[in-house]
Amino acid sequence: EVQLVESGGGLVQPGGSLRLSCVFSGFTFRSYAMNWVRQAPGKGLEWVSYISSSRSTINYADSVKGRFTISRDNAKNSLYLQMNSLRVEDTAVYYCARGLIVNNYYYYGMDIWGQGTTVTVSS
Amino acid sequence: QSVLTQPPSVSGAPGQRVTISCIGNNSNIGAGYDVCWYQQLPGTAPKLLIYGNVIYGNSNRPSGVPDRFSGSKSGTSASLAITGLQAEDEADYYCQSYDSSLSARVFGGGTKVTVL
What we know:
The complex is a heterodimer. Chain A is mainly beta.
């Protein structure tokens, strides 16, 4: 069974740091691009960051650029999001999501999502 | 303000057909980038519902998604249709594409579907 499990969320003060992790099972992790997507309380989905399967391409939303760093360890089937200089507006549920591949075509969409981990930034 | 614009809510009676629009521009949907639709039931993670592009068509469904759900695209807009509306379809729905001017994946603001 394909499964993604996020961890690392919690309560942090403004200006603080957190590192989120996402562990995969049930598929060949190294073949897939990965994303982080977040959802603030009562709000819609916001894409945060993308990393290609080979790490050659990394993108960030403008709202987190310069503060967040995405990385992956294919040997450990793991995806990470290092979050620094956290702000109140970063409060959200953070989801890791697998990039969609169909017939060797790499879509910009996401087909498998984790259950999410909650990050709360508050003093 | 989302790059892709969706109506905040739509509603319909059981058995009816409802459509959700997703309006973009020539940097995203109009440029031919993929359009995906997601369903998010209360308290759960989003689920991929429809995916599509100019090569393979705009209404592809992952295994397990009922054929009551279909997608379409015209110009700078896309639409999700739900036919034979059921109580279990009550959820939030999001469109998503890629925007070349932002170099970013972008979501619509979401549409809440209510079954009357």
